[in-house]
Amino acid sequence: MAMQWQWLQPGSSCTVRAYAKINLTLDVLGRRGDGYHALATVMQTIDLYDTLSLTLREDGLVHLVCTQPELSTETNLALRAAMLLRAHTGERRGVLIELQKRIPSAAGLGGGSSDAAAALLALTRLWQLRLTATELMELAASLGSDVPFFLYGGLALCEGRGELVTPLPPCWPAELRWLVLLKPAISVATAGVFGALTAHDYSDGSHTQAVCAALQAQRMPALSHLHNGLERGVLERYAEVAVGRAALLEAGAPFVRLSGSGPTLFTALADLEEAHRLWLRLQEQGYEVYLTQVVYPSAESLTLASVAAH
Length: 310
Fold this sequence. Notes:
Layout: E1 5-9, E2 13-31, E3 37-57, E4 62-66, H1 77-89, E5 94-100, H2 111-126, H3 133-143, H4 147-152, E6 155-160, E7 164-168, E8 178-183, H5 190-195, H6 206-216, H7 231-237, H8 239-250, E9 257-258, E10 265-269, H9 272-284, E11 288-292, H10 304-309
Helix pairs in contact: 1-2, 7-8
């Protein structure tokens, strides 16, 4: 998983990064019997992250403070993860979670889900819990479809409603080395985007299969396979996203795709100077833009195996 750790005072506090993601593909296969949609998607963590600092409390209280006060609520996924873990294990100690947000919210970048995964992993260690990898995955899936992916990070194929994760080797194409993200000045509700899908938006998963095959063969996937089944509906329903897409293309982006349910759009270039020029043009136009790269677990990162054995 792509969490980097810093222990402040052994046994009492830790700090962890929770990385954002983009969807290189997102095939919507159809609606399932449980009301969710069946998906096949290739996701990759990127070097845009929130920071969570967790401090042990012996008084049993679980409290979250966020740099965005509107997110300091009981619905915050990091706080829900802590409460779920306590209920599952019977843990009585508390924790103060201090969350520094950098990933924009409701943006298709998985910030809340990543925060939840980071909280699960950090608290498993901070509270010295003995959980198996399977238990962690089940807890993560109950919090949200993207949360299991963030237990791994890196590059992965995600299926089911997104919770079935198959890690892929680190084989990101050099042609996509530098990522430029544009976040339109709106938020998009994921449930509403999925609710507006029609049968014409469904696909058979062949885009995702083709991208996985290309990546594993260390080839650049065809741009036609960088497909997002949610993109058409989002572009039609949200004018700000369509305008942002046009701005990216006019500024020189070689292609533009929607990440997740949006509204964040991304493009990628091989050359840093070109990527920086593109980023600068868009920033000068007043857009919220990010210049970033993909990120993989480091040697210092906590792994699921070490969580289970702790």
